[in-house]
Write a structure and sequence with these properties.
The chain has 87 residues and is mainly α. It has a domain at 31-57. It has two helices and no strands. The protein is rod-shaped, with a radius of gyration of 35 Å. Keywords: Cell cycle, Cell division, Cell inner membrane, Cell membrane, Coiled coil, Membrane, Signal, Transmembrane, Transmembrane helix. It is found in: Cell inner membrane; Cell membrane. It comes from Lysobacter arenosi. Belongs to the FtsL family.
């Protein structure tokens, strides 16, 4: 009887140890994945900041005015070209 109980306890101890090893291995893998994802997040945040700055630069009114004049040949109408329509 004592021998059977001792055998069961040894087997339970080995199974428990293997479960701890598996849990620690899984923890390490998940930690590596978390580190990778955090690094990717940081890179995306940097890229997003750069794109916001670029968008702000392209959307400046001086830039829009310059492109309208140079590429599209647009200009402000002169006094004689302005027509006022009254209801």
């Amino acid at each position: 009887m004592a021998r059977l109980l001792l055998s069961v306890l040894v087997v339970a101890n080995v199974v428990s140890a293997l479960a701890v090893v598996e849990a620690r291995h899984q923890h390490r893998q998940l930690f590596v994945q978390l580190s990778r994802l955090e690094r990717a997040r940081d890179e995306l945040n940097i890229e997003f900041g750069r794109l916001q700055l670029e968008q702000a630069t392209w959307a400046e009114s001086n830039r829009i005015d310059q492109v309208a004049r140079d590429r599209l040949g647009m200009k402000f109408p002169e006094g004689v070209e302005t027509v006022v329509i009254r209801p």
